[in-house]
Amino acid sequence: MNLSVSGHHLSVTPAIRTYVESKLERVLRHFDHIIDVHVILSVQKLRQCAEVTLHASGKDIFAQAEHENLYAAIDELIDKLDRAVMKHKDRAYGHPHESLKHHEPDEAV
Predict the structure, then answer these.
(1) Which of 33, 34, 86, 105 has the fewest beta carbons under 10 Å from its own?
(2) pLDDT single digits (tens) 58-94
(3) In which order are the strands placed within the sheet that holds 47-56?
(4) Which of 35, 41, 80, 39 is nearest to 59 (CA)?
(5) What fold is seen in the domain 2-92?
(6) What global pTM score does this model have?
(7) DSSP code per residue over 52-81
(8) How far apart are CA 89 and CA 73, in angstroms?
(9) What does the domain layout of the chain look like in residue ranges?
(10) Around Cβ 103, how many Cβ atoms within 10 Å?
């Protein structure tokens, strides 16, 4: 997995980078077919914004979160990303014909 963390009006310190990496491990535990992750951290007046674009096999997933604290914004971002990845995993690897299992075929007379 390729990870890039960049800042917009913000310098990305090693502490912030390791915090993002440790939080992304949770997403990697649930889904290991992730190819590339690009995280953008930005500051807009008093709001801290965190965005992520995740390239997985078959789909690109985007999530965004804003908060007054940068670490809280990263936490919200990872929660949203984890839900989106789990939803993608359920759709991609779920059982598409589950509703047909309960359907009883008509008996021939």
Answers:
(1) 105
(2) 789 999 999 999 999 999 999 999 999 988 888 877 7
(3) 2-8, 34-44, 47-56, 59-67
(4) 35
(5) Double Stranded RNA Binding Domain (3.30.160)
(6) 0.80
(7) EEEEETTEEEEEEEEESSHHHHHHHHHHHH
(8) 24
(9) 2-92
(10) 8
